[in-house]
């Protein structure tokens, strides 16, 4: 039938194009420059739309920083508060004059702090996507911006057509090919006996497939300081924003991943890639046993031939405006820590996975219908635990280094706050401070009575 | 392409809320967005759990009591108007308030008396209008945790009740509470200013 013949021809042309223009260059780590051209066009379009916005809404010109993709203002908007804060310590807030015994009015301090937290707290906002300074022509980010002009609407419509009808099918095809190649390739390589040929082949397969997957997201990644790239026998530590982080890092070098065995598609991928190179997967029951986990990881890094381990110490996805508490478990293993900072540019697409709002499939669809994923990866110089430093302090030191490099704010809170309640230990600290004030100054009123 | 910034229409009964609480339009809108952000499952109201998720509130020794003040009389949900009414207690006093208020209108929510009432109900769990020694002890225990012994705490509670109690009934009524704090600058201690 002519219809099916035609469809078959289109499909085969399509696949040939994809093969020639994308797959083969990926295998050789070469870029044909198509994505660069796409990005240039995209940046020009967004700048143009920003100018149209400013032109039609002149009052914005004074408030917003002008032109292009303002990185600084994106940072600032994340930290502007809506209430006037009095950050004085507890002693001052509780009216420091007194010899300090309990007074009826002490309750004011805590209630004010409590209500301030209800009106605004620095943690909750980290679990929703970052707000943009200027609209990037995606409906999903259009929360603050009103109807501007007909020209902008037309550009937007064009954008929708391009994204959903041209980019989305291409990306889905690529992703599909990438994952299948990964599974098949690693299974094949896994058949070989252990040898340097096997490691070389497994690296090739991993690298190629990750590059294909990153292209399927139109990813543009800038690597900085490649001389500090994690070496074998080390532990690579990075801030976590989404599952894509793994692909982004693997495009530049292979890592041994650490994680829980999962079911479904993820499970298939996990089982396949562990055949080719030794990733560390734990059963759910094993994860609870911290000593077992530490022991296995120690064994892994002791073997100098094995790839560096990749760990995300935050434990959960944060929205890339801040870095939350690093769990100290990863820092108790010993060895050299290679910190890596990953910062996405939200103007082109939001990479943050809000797991309470979107499941994996809708998340991937959202990512594939954004313009692109643009990010910077900074490799930081290796760090080791110093004398007299415990794991928690070391974790904080590494966290600061990553936050400073990536331009992210640092928060002492646990990312697990997304799902559960905060630990009582923090509350006890406040109670301790308060008790010291009303009782700890030595004199109790019972004596003077 | 809708906008959210200037839509007071999003907020139900915006005008009467504004009059009742004294918040400006902009502040009300900010609080509305905050309400929506806290309402994680988009239920349209807040439950205790939603407020307990706030880290800074959960570590506050009086956190549970503060959450209680949003759920009077055993209710389990707080909708936006009630949310804002509680927060209105902490609105800074307007400068013109002092003499020009119409005495027939109900007292504004952020008056000195109402701020004191808010603080009073943090102590008075059973809502009987008096803070008994036992209730005083409970609040003290919340604020100090396990750091202070029972005897020390009891003596502190005893002393505090004695100092404030004028009619000798062994408990502190609201008027006695207000009197003992008459010199205190409540305004500064119990106000939260929302920036423009």
From TrEMBL, chain A:
Database matches in CDD domains: LPLAT_LPCAT1-like
Q: Where in the cell is it found?
A: Endoplasmic reticulum membrane
Gene Ontology terms: cellular component: endoplasmic reticulum membrane
Keywords associated with the record: Acyltransferase, Endoplasmic reticulum, Lipid biosynthesis, Lipid metabolism, Membrane, Phospholipid biosynthesis, Phospholipid metabolism, Transferase, Transmembrane, Transmembrane helix
GO biological-process terms attached to the record: glycerol-3-phosphate metabolic process; phospholipid biosynthetic process; regulation of TOR signaling; triglyceride biosynthetic process
SMART domains with a match to the protein in the record: PlsC (SM00563)
The protein here is known as Glycerol-3-phosphate acyltransferase 3
Q: What organism is this sequence from?
A: Equus caballus
UniProtKB/TrEMBL annotation, chain B:
Subcellular location per UniProt equals: Cell membrane; Cytoplasm; Nucleus
Q: Which residues form the EF-hand domain?
A: 26-61, 111-146, 152-187
Any one GO molecular function term: calcium ion binding
Report if keyword Isomerase is assigned: no
One Pfam family, short name: EF-hand_7
Q: What is its main location?
A: membrane
Query: Which SUPFAM superfamilies would you find in this protein's record?
Result: EF-hand
Its keywords, alphabetically, are: Calcium, Cell membrane, Cytoplasm, Lipoprotein, Membrane, Metal-binding, Myristate, Nucleus, Phosphoprotein, Protein transport, Repeat, Transport
Look up the domain of life of the source.
Eukaryota
The UniProt entry's GO biological process terms, in alphabetical order, are: cellular response to calcium ion; positive regulation of calcineurin-NFAT signaling cascade; positive regulation of cell population proliferation; positive regulation of protein import into nucleus; positive regulation of transcription by RNA polymerase II; protein transport
Q: Which cellular component, as a GO term, is one annotated location?
A: plasma membrane
Give the similarity note: Belongs to the calcineurin regulatory subunit family. CHP subfamily.
Return the PANTHER family for the record.
EG:114D9.1 PROTEIN-RELATED
Give the protein's recorded name. Answer: Calcineurin like EF-hand protein 2
Annotated organism of origin: Equus caballus (Horse)
């Amino acid at each position: 039938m002519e219809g099916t013949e035609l469809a078959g021809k289109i499909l085969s042309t399509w696949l040939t194009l994809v093969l020639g223009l994308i797959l083969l260059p990926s295998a050789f780590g070469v870029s044909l420059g198509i994505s660069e051209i796409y990005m240039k066009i995209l940046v020009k379009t967004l700048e143009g739309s920003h100018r149209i916005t400013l032109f039609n809404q002149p009052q914005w010109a004074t408030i917003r920083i002008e032109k292009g993709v303002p990185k600084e203002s994106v940072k600032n908007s994340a930290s502007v508060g809506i209430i006037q804060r009095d950050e004085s310590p507890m002693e001052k807030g509780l009216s420091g004059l007194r010899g300090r015994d309990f007074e009826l009015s002490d309750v004011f301090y805590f209630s004010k702090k409590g209500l301030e937290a209800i009106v605004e707290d620095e943690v909750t906002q980290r679990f929703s996507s970052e707000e943009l300074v200027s609209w990037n022509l995606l409906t999903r980010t259009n929360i603050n911006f009103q109807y501007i002009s007909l020209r902008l609407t037309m550009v937007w419509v064009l954008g929708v057509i391009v994204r959903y009808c041209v980019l989305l099918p291409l990306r889905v095809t690529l992703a599909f090919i990438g994952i299948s190649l990964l599974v098949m390739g690693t299974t094949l390589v896994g058949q070989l006996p252990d040898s340097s040929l096997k490691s070389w082949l497994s690296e090739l397969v991993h690298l190629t497939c990750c590059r294909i997957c990153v292209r399927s997201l139109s990813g543009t990644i800038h690597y900085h300081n490649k001389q500090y790239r994690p070496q074998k026998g080390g532990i690579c530590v990075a801030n976590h924003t989404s599952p894509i982080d793994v692909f982004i890092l693997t495009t530049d070098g292979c890592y041994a991943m650490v994680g829980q065995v999962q079911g479904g598609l993820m499970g298939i991928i996990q089982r396949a890639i562990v055949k080719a190179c030794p990733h560390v997967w734990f059963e759910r029951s094993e994860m609870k046993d911290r000593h077992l986990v530490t022991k296995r990881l120690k064994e892994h890094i002791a073997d100098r031939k094995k790839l560096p381990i990749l760990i995300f110490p935050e434990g959960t996805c944060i929205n890339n405006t801040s870095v939350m508490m690093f769990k100290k478990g990863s820092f108790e293993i010993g060895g050299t820590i290679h910190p890596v900072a990953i910062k996405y540019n939200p103007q082109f697409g939001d990479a943050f996975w809000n797991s309470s709002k979107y499941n994996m499939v809708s998340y991937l669809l959202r990512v594939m219908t954004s313009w692109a994923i643009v990010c910077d990866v900074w490799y930081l110089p290796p760090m080791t635990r110093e004398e007299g430093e415990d794991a928690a302090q070391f974790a904080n030191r590494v966290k600061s280094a990553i936050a400073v490099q990536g331009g992210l704010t640092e928060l002492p809170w646990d990312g697990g706050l997304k799902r559960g309640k905060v630990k009582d230990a923090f509350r006890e600290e406040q109670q301790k401070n308060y008790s010291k004030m009303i009782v700890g100054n030595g004199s109790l009123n019972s004596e003077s009575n | 392409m809708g906008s959210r910034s200037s839509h007071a229409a999003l907020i139900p009964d915006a005008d009467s809320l504004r009059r009742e609480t004294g918040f400006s339009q902009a502040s009300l809108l900010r609080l509305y967005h905050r309400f929506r952000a806290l309402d994680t499952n988009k239920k349209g109201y807040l439950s205790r759990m939603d407020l307990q998720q706030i880290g800074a509130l959960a570590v506050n020794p009086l956190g549970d009591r503060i959450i209680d003040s949003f759920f009077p009389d055993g209710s389990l949900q707080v909708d936006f108007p009630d949310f804002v009414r509680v927060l209105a207690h902490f609105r800074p006093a307007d400068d013109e308030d002092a003499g020009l208020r119409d005495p027939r209108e109900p007292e504004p929510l952020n008056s000195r008396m109402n701020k004191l009432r808010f603080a009073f109900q943090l102590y008075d769990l059973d809502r009987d209008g008096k803070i008994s020694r036992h209730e005083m002890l409970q609040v003290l225990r919340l604020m100090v945790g396990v750091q202070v012994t029972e005897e020390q705490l009891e003596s502190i509670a005893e002393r505090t009740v004695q100092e404030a109690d004028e009619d000798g009934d062994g408990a502190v009524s609201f008027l006695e509470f207000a009197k003992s704090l008459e010199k205190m600058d409540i305004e500064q201690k119990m106000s939260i200013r929302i920036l423009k």
